[in-house]
Amino acid sequence: MIRLQLWVALLSISFFIPHLQAKELDGVLPDSLSKWYKPENKRQVWLHTMFGMRRELQAVEEYVDQKDINGINKWSERLVTHYRKLPVMVPEWKEYVDLDAVDALDQAVKNSEFKSIRYNLRQLQKTCRSCHKKNRILATLRYRSPDFSSLIITGEDKEHKYPRFMKTISRSLNRIRIAAEDEHWSVASDASNQFQQELKMLGNNCASCHKDDEPVERILGASTKHSIDEMDAAIVEKNIRSVKMSLGETAVKVCARCHGVHRTAADIRNQLLAED
Known about the structure:
The protein has 276 residues and is mostly helical. 74% of the residues lie in helices and 2% in strands. It is built from eleven helices and two strands; from the N terminus they run ααααααββααααα. The chain has helices at residues 2-16, 22-28, 45-66, 69-89, 99-110, 114-144, 162-181, 185-205, 214-220, 222-237, 240-272; strands at 152-154, 159-161. α3 (45-66) runs antiparallel to α4. The two termini are 36 Å apart.
């Protein structure tokens, strides 16, 4: 569900902001923000600060309902510390921060004034929503969405630029179907071998982003290999119906799954960050 919501949000941007130049986006997202995201930072500091504050806001809210002052003290201390850091980390966004409200919250906690705590929590939540409404999607696109344009696929003979390589692998997949339909079975077999070599090259490149094997296994693992083996067997048997079925399964398991995770966000990112 979360992935679907993100996809819909990103797709909406492609309709309502058809072309935003890089220099314009630089004016929306402050330069100081990049210091708190990879690759300039070793960690996604800003992102984890947001996650922490969301958790802290919820904790304080729940403990206020329980009138548990110990729980309130613990989590409000963290919340106040994180919130006060925001205009220091990104001075350009100080207009979104309400330091008076966070000071009032801190004082209300010290006085155990539950009604005031609840009120000032709502004030802080309003500032969060205001900043997110204008900036969150663009920040997600810039700092948390994939950019494949500069990636290089390394093969045994040479290196391939990622966009061109993806066109090549698509052509290999289509060549299998074309050759099978026209009963050029040796061509279909050669195209399948070529496609599998290209998938292997692509899988080796996944490690440039993914540090574990699970994401690669989901798309290029045993299930995909089973569909390809069935396709090769159908080519040997010259069974066009089985070739179509196994080829379709392979396309869904590899192309559709990978594109569903990566391509929509990457395409919208590239469109919004396009240079003249």
